[in-house]
Model the fold of this input.
Amino acid sequence: MEALNRETSHYQPAAELIALPDRAREAFSFIVMLVCGERFAVEIEKVLEIIRVPRITWLPGAPPHIRGLINMRGSILAVADPAVLLSNPPVEMKPQNRIVVVEGAAVKLGLLVEEVAGVESSPASALEKSLPTLSGPQRQIIVAQVELEGKLSGVLDIDKLVERARFAGSRKQQPGQSQRREPGGNNGN
Done:
């Protein structure tokens, strides 16, 4: 499952195509996932694999959006909670949770999601700009929207999401704020 779909040799992200009137690419394939009950789409070219949630090792001192680390076939992988990155409450651990392993900004990262809804395709002409009412962090990460299977999905810019995950915790902590989490709260099935 290393390469889910690498059909195009000259990949052009949806975020760039939104601004182009002629939509240089004909179609997109997306992995559709649920985060905080909302549907989000990730371009399949950015997804390396999807795995069941193994035991997540708590990482003391990590920012709130980092759920911990997992051992993925001998490699250590950080697991981020996209809900927290989108200014929402953390994803609740349930049996249907999955980790979507993505590569963005030259970094591999696991995204803890509520559920993976499937793989769906859309013509490039169906991509629309994201809503102007989105909050700051959401506006940076949700770069487009598209109707898939009759339901609206926000298209995530994985490069921006990974970049935000890498640097969101490096901001100075405000007095009175705590980043401490209990070790037992982040374990998978």
